[in-house]
């Protein structure tokens, strides 16, 4: 691709996506609210690797309900806020994963399995 063709392609992309309407949207709370809100699902995704003993059942339940309510809100407001909707969809899945881990650990024997594995590995390793 020649340099002039690259320049033309770059200018075309910039004209299409960096315009007055895009900049107006980027500098509103309709954009920055969901972007800053993405910290919640990112933290939940990161926490999926941590020990399930640390999961708070009531807080996980509250976050599941919170995301369900705000998914509805994101589609009700005008104009619809699909970025906020996507944020809460991701959070709903991440928090549901945390809820399954919580229930498995505390109510379905995950804690006992963890203790058995620790005891087995301690016996298997000679000192």
Please provide a written account of the structure:
- Its main location: mitochondrion.
- With 127 residues, the chain is mostly helical.
- The chain has a domain at 29-109.
- 80% of the residues lie in helices and 0% in strands.
- The chain contains seven helices and no strands.
- The protein has helices at residues 3-17, 20-26, 29-37, 39-47, 57-76, 82-107, 110-124.
Any idea what the radius of gyration is?
23 Å
User: Which whole number gives the mean pLDDT?
Assistant: 85
> pLDDT below 50 for ≥5 consecutive residues: which ranges?
none
- The structure class reads mainly alpha
Order of helices and strands: HHHHHHH
Q: Largest sheet, if any?
A: none
Helix count equals 7
**In total, how many beta strands?**
0
> Cα distance, first to last residue?
65 Å
* Beta-strand content bin: under 5%
From the spread of the alpha carbons, the general shape counts as elongated
Helix content: over 70%
Keywords: Membrane, Mitochondrion, Mitochondrion inner membrane, Transmembrane, Transmembrane helix, Transport
InterPro entries: MPC
Pfam families: MPC (PF03650)
Protein name: Mitochondrial pyruvate carrier
Report a brief summary of the structure.
With 127 residues, the protein is mainly α.
Topology:
Elements: H1 3-17, H2 20-26, H3 29-37, H4 39-47, H5 57-76, H6 82-107, H7 110-124
Helix pairs in contact: 3-6, 4-6, 5-6
Q: Descriptors for this entry?
A:
127 residues; mainly alpha; elongated
């Amino acid at each position: 691709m020649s340099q002039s063709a690259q320049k033309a392609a770059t200018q075309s992309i910039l004209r299409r996506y960096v315009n007055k309407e895009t900049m107006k949207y980027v500098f509103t709370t309709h954009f920055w609210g969901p972007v800053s809100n993405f910290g919640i699902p990112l933290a939940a995704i990161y926490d999926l690797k941590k020990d399930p003993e640390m999961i708070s059942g009531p807080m996980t339940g509250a976050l599941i309900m919170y995301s369900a309510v705000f998914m509805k809100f994101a589609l009700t407001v005008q104009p619809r806020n699909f970025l906020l909707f996507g944020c809460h969809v991701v959070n709903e899945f991440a928090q549901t994963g945390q809820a399954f881990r919580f229930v498995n650990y505390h109510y379905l024997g995950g804690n006992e399995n963890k203790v058995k594995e620790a005891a087995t590995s301690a016996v298997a390793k000679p000192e």
